[in-house]
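Lab notebook, page 48
Experiment: co-folding of the full assembly
Goal: obtain a model of how the components sit together before planning crosslinking
Operator: M.T.
Materials (sequences as entered):
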Amino acid sequence: MPEKPPREIKYLATLPVNILLNAVLIIPFAIMIYLAFLKWSPAMGMNWWEAPIIGLTNFARALGDARFIAALSRTALYTVSVVAIEFFLGLALAYIMLGDFVGKKAAIAITIYPLMLPPVVVATIFYLMFQSYGPVNNLFLKAIMGEEALRIYWFLKPDTAFITLLIADIWQWTPFMFLIMYSALSAVPKRLVEAAEVLGASSFTIFWRVRLPLIKPLIIVALVLRGLEAFKMFDYAFIMTGGGPGTTTETVSMYIYRTAILYTDISYAAAMSLIILAMIIIVVRAFIWYFFERGR
Amino acid sequence: MKIAKVRVVNVTKRFGDLVAVNNVSFEVYEGEIFTLLGPSGCGKTTTLRIISGLEKPDSGKIYIGDNDVTALPPQLRNVCLVFQEYAVFPHMSVYDNIAFGLKVKRVPKEELSKKVRELAEVLELTDRLNTKAGKLGISEQQRIALARCMAVEPEVLLLDEPLTFADAKVREKMRRELKKIQRELGVTMIYVTHDQLEAMMLSDRIAVMNKGRLLQVGSPIEVYDNPQNLFVARFIGSPTINTIEGVLVRERERLLIKRNEVVVDVSEFMSSYHNVESLLGREIVIGIRPEDVYLDISGPIEGVVEVIEVSGERLAIHVRVSKELVLKALVPIYEVVTEREKVRLSFNLEKVHIFDKATEEKVSSVSKVKY
Amino acid sequence: MKSHGTKILLSALKYIAIGIFVLWVLIPVAWVVSLAFKPYAEWRVSYFVPKNFTWNNFIVLFKSEAFVGIMGATAIVEPVTKPLINSLAVTSLSTIIAVMIGFFTAYGASRYNTPGPFGLFFTLLTRMLPPATFVTPIMVYYSNLRLLDTHFGLIILYSAVTVTYGIWILKGFIDAIPIEWEEAAMLEGATPIKTLFKVVLPIARPGLVVAGLFIFLLTWTELLFALVLTNVYAVTLPVHISKYVGAVGQLYGPQAALALIGSIIPIAIGYAIQKHLVTGFTFGMVRG
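Observation: model returned without errors.
Model output:
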């Protein structure tokens, strides 16, 4: 194939995608940068391009906004928790499922289906599960605690509400980590496993010293991707707890959403968005540097 | 009194409809180099893997030492396997590769370090100890795989065509090294290869296999001089053995081999065979190795020289006896022969092998060499 | 090593662990399924199998009715027909667009490295950033362009957001097609465009199907943008589902039924492309 693409191909391969992304995403992005430096809300009755520029005030406000900081740290805590738990559970599950056994295909098919569900639906499912008369109280906890269980209102206390969110996420996304680990672990060449076997290694040793080290890069990819997704979480909080009680389970995405839609404080929302974007870009860049450029 | 270190007893293994190993039995003595030799797909690698425990036989037993290990996984048998592709752990250093088996056995650090370094020394890997094994070339990987196995001091060392991937020069060197190390350590070695020359040079005893069956077991000289089977006769020996095929008939006091239009007078060759009568009318194959074919002015077989090649210190002469039959003779290099010359050939009567064409089994031989 | 007894114990533990996980995965859905078929009186019970099996919850979803919720509060919920149709239409169209544009871009990237290394990375970026950080300007932008609450607006937004998945998935498929076929076609006089459509496209069809199904799955389930950008006309199914919380009188039955309806298509797709799920979710970095 020639080095340079023929003209028609070049246009076909770059124009549509550029037009699409520019028109729909990049222009609004540029607008957002401008918006962040304004003092503007639709309620003010003027168009945004007529609004006064107030420099870095919004940013300063964000950094001093207790609710913003709280949402940020809470989301960070949420992210680290779910990613860690999903990783270990997924890895353990992948290890267990490695060998052949009766019903393996069926087991795998069943364990991965939570991935396919819409997060809204998963949120709905657990909203129903954690109702005071839902099965978590009415069936399981009742067996342990008796009638007391019916008086646990999961969504009314900050700690328990947070836990419900964790559980929803873990329920839906552990299969994701499982699938990645499982395919990676299975892809380790059979010969290496056999070589370890004839040297006397138990199946655990083989897992720990041969398989796991060989899939390290994939693990990192999985962790980063899952981490980014978890940080974005909106659906579970919106449906199950509404950010509540109060604002105690509000994620960063929810807060920005509310600021923009509910409070119509557009320019402030824009500023917060930019701060979050900057943070994420820095983190991603750091990972790419670590992962790709430090000698793969 | 030779001790049998490994006993394979009536082992059969099927993969689907294919019988990969068909009722194979043999013994390997302590301290010997025993080679499974045969073409691709003959079952030698499968047999090796069954001995190692990586495959389970459908029937039969494996004994290592006095123990019936048939049901045991590889970890519990005291064997180690060097794979054809070496299978070194690419992410570990050479040191860690060699130390792997020892770490599994929880050998204390000092002893482990000492052992690893000794082996590295023997196999010339000392200056590579800290390199990641995946980054090294084939010959290093080969040695790493070997050292890795030797570290655990197995009762039996199994090697699956370990020299296939090496180039010719390295092969020879490695082969000699291998034999030297084996003699020094006295470890029982079972070797698998498809290269008959390699098997002949390396082994104490060879087991020739084809299509899942074990055809003959013997020392290199035995399988060479006294092949029990047409396949063995053909597979071993370079250049390949000459064969004359046809039905044995008696006409006018002469014994003839007839095939299509070809008639070869074999009266002299069959002279020492005492049971000629039983062979009359049967299709037989007479085998005679090129080095046992002579140029003889008074020889019974006549032909025309087609090709003359220099082969080592000898001349390989291809003589066309008939439209379908060419006999190769390996003669001293000073023989004066020219192409298209008419010559006569005779055989060393003590080295004539007779096989029944249908069963491919040896009917008799007149070799007088004692074993 | 281990004795025979230990081996059996470990084996049993293995099956138990798998069993527990299977239960953990099935129970929540089992509960929702049971709720969907329970009449109002049984919404608060602790047993799973409804004593009075009913389709009412489903029927109710499609009607515009006033409900009597708990404590006598009434709630009016629109029928789910429109959101359902909207979702189908919007998702299908945006998927087709994303796949086609993704295909062309992937072809250029695979054969000619068109956007260059930075360009490709940039497309990844669009997926790594939280949607919530984009809603603000997009809302303003759409408002100015009068695109709020329109099908068109939603379609192009979804295409833009998912096209990057299309590019990465399809690039993987196209990379696997031997270049020789295209070269042969061009040697026989076909123009590059013709080659693209007549040679590459047919072979890449399985990839297009996988990418399409995967993107459909993602788009069908999207909530945030739909929430912000739609109101009455272009409301999608996820938005509709989100209305059943809190204030709307705790209509557990219909809520469960709705959840089931919203799950059918994703699950069907999910199992159809089971093998490719991992590849899709990780932008082709991990082979499924």
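Interpretation: Chain B touches chain A at residues 52-54, 73-75, 79-81, 83, 85, 87-92, 100-101, 104-105, 145, 148-149, 152 (CB under 8 Å).
Next step: discuss with group before ordering constructs.
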